[in-house]
Design brief:
mainly alpha; single chain; globular; 74 helices; two-stranded parallel sheet; 1536 residues
Amino acid sequence: MAAIYSGIYVKLKSKNTSWEDKLKLAHFAWVSHQCVLPNKEQVLLDWVSRALVSYYNNFELEDEVVEKLWAYLDNVIHSKRLQNLLKSGKTIGLSFSIAQVINERLSEACSQKTQQNIGTVLSCSRGILSTPTLSIIYTAKCELLVDLLSTLSKLACQQLASDDAVGSQLFSVLQLTFAQYLLIQRQQTNPNRVFGQVASHLLQPCLLLKHLLTVRGWTQADDNRVRQHLSREIRNQVETLLQAGLFQPELFSSYREELLPEQQLQEKKKGVLKSSLLPVNTVQIKLGSGFCEPALHGAVVAGSVSLLYKLFLNSYCKAENHLVCFHMLSRLFVCLRLSGLQQGLEENALSPADWSTELLALEQLLNLVFSSDIYNVASDRIRHKEVQFRFYRKLAQTLMKHSQASIPAWFRCLKLLMSLNHTIVEPDLDDLMASAWIDAQISDQRTKKAQEALINTVFQTYSKLRQFPRLFEVVLTVICQPAADDLRVPLFSAGLTVKLHECLLELPPNQILDVLFLFVEKCQTFIIPAVEGSSDMALKLLSVSSVLHAFLLNMRSLDDVTPLPVIIRAQSVLAKMQEGVIQPLMELLQAPRREEIKSGLWLRKASDSLLLLVYTWVEVNTLFGFSCSKYASPIAEIACAVTGPAARHWGISSFLPGVKEQCWQRVMELANSFASTSKYCLELLALQKMKMMLIQTKTDLQALRHSAAFILESGRSSMNRGESGPWDGNITVISDLTYPTAHWHLVVSNLTILLPYISLQDVEYIAHVLVKTLVLAKSQEADTDQESSISTGKISLGLVHSSFLPELKVLHCAFLTSLIHQFATLLPTAAKDSVDWPLQQLSAGNIPWHEEILAPCKPAHPLETPSESKLLKYELSLSWKTLEKVAQCILLLAKNGYPVILKENQLESCLSLLEIASLLKLDSLLPCDCTRCFLVLLSLLANARASVSCSKLLFLKFLSTCFHLLRCLQAGRNVNSIFKVFHASDILEAVMTSQLTASKFITDLLTTPVWAQYLQEFQAFLENFLQMIIERRQSVRLNLEKFMSFLVSCKPDTGASKSKGWKNWNPVAEQLLLMAFTTLCHVVTLYLQQLPEKRLQSAEVLSALSESVVLHMVRIVEHGLQNCTQNQPLPVTFIPPITTLLKADLQKGWQKEPSGLLEQPRVKLYQKFYSQILRELHCAGGNLQFLQSALQFLTVFCSVPELYPGKETAVTVVFAIKRLLTGPAITTQVIKNMEMELTEVLVQLLGTCSAEEFYTIRSLVLQGLEIRNVWQQKAKEVLSAVTLTKFLLTCPLSEDKEKAFWIASPQILTALAMQTKEACQDHSQISTIVVPILDTVAALLRQGEGFLLNPHHVALAFSILLTVPLDHLKTEDYHGVFLGVHEVLFSIVQCHPKVLLKAVPSFLNSFHRLVVSVMHEGRQKGDRVTTDEFEVILKCAHLVERMYTRIAAKMEDLTVFSAFIVARYVTELQKVTLHPAVKKHLTEGIYHILDLCIERDIKFLNASLPAGVREVFKDLYSDYNHYHKAKKHGEEKYTA
């Protein structure tokens, strides 16, 4: 041994030994038990440390050797041998010099900006820092740890600033280093020393690191752990470090001395200055020096300033320190580049990106000031000589001087200054209104929202100050100034109009009237005299008109309680508006100006202004007249003098006094020449005229029809053009592009008024536009980014989606006609004469489709001649005769095979039209329309075919959509009307013929999801239609016989049959026929079971036919199986037919003669099928349709054990199912989807298997629960065993099998506990392993009532519950775990109360974890929580409430624990601020526990709880007494 010792030690020390040999010897010495050295581990660590230190001192070693030395040190540090020695208490350490070497190596990499060869060094650092015994080399010398943290931060910044992918190694070491330093930082007793460390070495790299982590554009190439977890954790650690390092409570005196000059002078007078530390100056210097790239410096400083100020306020913000907090703000503001602009340094001009960064920082600073209530106006004025006001005022001047209306933060900063004190901004109010509102050209939605928020704050401020007239005096001044641009933006958006409305409702009416007088006066004296020929004045006129419009239509209406002086003033305003503004404008515009119409902008804007004011005047005058009896309308005065004819004809003088008809006609002619506001206002006036006429006792039908026709005709040319743009609802911004949208909105919104008074041609026009706009809706929505804007597509979609359209039956019918016409124009015709094509006939204009609606409405006139009555009946019968003719045409085309060939673009258009058709409300379709819909869909199915170049998937989707709509149509109220024009069997034959013909073109799509969907829709249509035939009870037998005969005659081939078999086998046709046979057999079987005994003859006939169907089906299946290659998977469509056949054979009496079972003709087929399914089961993956069908077959097959081929038993099937559950594509969701089928199979297997087979199955399950499966990375094995255990619990077992299962239950519970412990170490296994285990344990405890008699076995569940994590989980995982834990606890409470009594502490600890978790997740988080997440939290809170209630009901004998439960609840409640909805659930639950508390418990809680918690308890108990206890006693009073 001595030789070994001396030899290795000497060789390691010898200069003659090569480094390669030394490393081999060192490695051998570490791992070999044969090498015995005194204190061997320490000797080897010292050797490698000295070697590395000597290299960094002398640089004598090669780089390769150095890297191997680092690798050796890393292996030693991470070796299990070293960890075990340290755990055993052996003292092993590293020298401080190795820490210096590590720091030097990392610094070298940092200075060289290369991180290629530092992975091993980082790994060493991680090993040292994570091992307490080794980390002392850093923790004992804080300077080394600070140096390491600074270097690692710089390395991380380099990696984040590069374009390379970010790895996790560096950031995990950095996070660990931060954690170690924060631990040491908390133990430091000298705050000045800590401040110096942070400010000198860590402030700059930490600020840069936080900035880069925040702005990094993460990509998929970046490490997921860094992106989701480490980046957030490191940002939080940076804030904690800066908070504890720079802003300790002990440093406040230094900050105060530096920030308050007068305080400093007083201290000097009293004695020596207490502290020479200048923390603010130090921070400013660090922020000012270039610690990063010049391009980044401004952004880093901007983000850092707001962060530092937030941390400063967190530490020092108290009422008595507000002045210090303000001075800190002013000193930090100097670090921003904005301060240079404030000082007039024009050379420091900022780019738009820089402005955005600076303004965001300023916004955050002002937000902190506002939320912390630092600025007190009175205190600042009285005590501090307005030092804060002057600062904010200067800041406001800078913002106004350098307007940045394209940046949202600029508006938000001004809003915050306005919120602090309106006098800060008031001296620049005119500039603010101009640059932020009236002259601001804004297109970005985010900027627009910020602008609206600012203007809303201005409105609210001046509304509360009752200075609204003063504000709008400034607005009027700005409007009347020369415009900055040729076209001024509209003043009131939709959002701003709502805010104005809210303010006007709060204002005194006289203030509103003051504003109106002001604007009318300015318009009359300044604008109108100069408007002719001046575009600038015309724009000013439109702005003033929009203000008048907004005020008059949003102010509170006059009523009978309005004071008389206000009413008189309102009358005066309207009179002055009419005489001084409207009348002069009318006279100005009535002159003929044909040559100016095209080029005159002023004329267009003046026309818009006039019509807007006229409409506003008429609307408000009418409203005041209705709502206020004291209001004297000018119209009423003139109406007395107007002659009869004028009043009867409802001319303009009926609405606007003093205007001649001839003058009005000229103005209308001018307005109609512009597709703008003026034209829209004419439509509004026509609509207003209709409303006025409709409220009269006698209505003028001719005038109503004329007005309705005028409205539709006004926009017809624009709508026919088909070009429209999004409109925001603002009446003053209607242009050529937005006018169609505004017009269509007006028409659709007022259909109830218009529809009774328009012609059928106009109804058809509206229906045509409706269809056309719906077709364009998708593309229009894609082009429209603004969510709040209106488009023609949105309007039409809203109408079709509403329940309103079906009530307008004539329009509904016309809409359907127009939709069919769209189909007809889209599809090419198959026949020579297009009139014979079904869709042309179904949308023919000469057929009175609407007469079915109008006929009941026509009164029977006594003078009506018999010929007129016959004509009406003829029209009604004409539509049905046409439908009969179309039906026969469709059948003929389907039978003879004259398909219409569609190109891909035509198919896509058809799908769009079918999507529109799907929006129809089926119950609202009249019999004729329902039949037309059915015929259209049947025609498309029967006669449409895809071209050779067309996508087959698209064609299949088209067919699926048609079947889906047919199925939906079958649920309609009037679906039986189709049998007026069709025989049921003819429809089925046409559908089958067309699909078998179409199957030739889609033979290569059998494995696609679209094919599965098509088959599903096809089968659903057939089943529903056959069911409908039976429910009608008319010619049921005849229709079924015909369809059966037709199906039997069909052959699944693509050519003629030339032999006994089918020559050209078509697998698509085969699957269609099998689906049809299966569906028919299923429906007929159910029908035969329901037939009464009297109709046995019909039953016998159908049974005989069914037998022929069965034989044909068997032949197809056998032939299909022969055509399947050995490796080809079994087609899904084969399984349901075979299952149906097997069921039928079993029902016919196989089970009565088990001895002759194997001699039955189809047994070989079933056994072959069974073997094939078992082979393919585990390969099916996520093919849910196959799995469900296969399991259904196995359920039927396994019900007869004699059918098993060879020596196979139930164990074989269970093994196949277990193998299926271990497949890679099987997830918990897939298992959930086939839960019913799996349960049914296992019920049959366990019901028919022998006891020996059951023991084997049990062993199979227990093998899957062995812990070695987790160690061998076989998580799916565990999942399959857990799933099988859960399903076994739901199966009824015989007494012997039941006893055998429950004997093994303790073993199962123990295995589940161990599996949970292992799985919880990996969060990825929470949803896949842990949640299913919790579900299984809950089921085991529920079913184990009366079987699990040993309390220790039940208590095993608590070890599972206390292991499961409840934090840092995804939302769906969190809900699954929470629900699982709750169900286990609930099962114990419900089924094992005796165990609960003996294990109350474990139970309460498990439940308390749920309470703490839901409180943590349910705290108020602002906008950070999504709706889905909050719904999950609410569900969890409800579960906690439910458990509290159940505990209270079960623990009446254990009241000693009730005080303990309440104490733990209020202790946690004191730590968080809960969301009200979450708190409601938890409070309702804890009230039930308080019901158990006696007076002694309450006294105990009041005496023992800490002060803060006691206050929370007192509030809770007070609410309990006030709400819950009183309610409970009230209910008990009336309880028997």
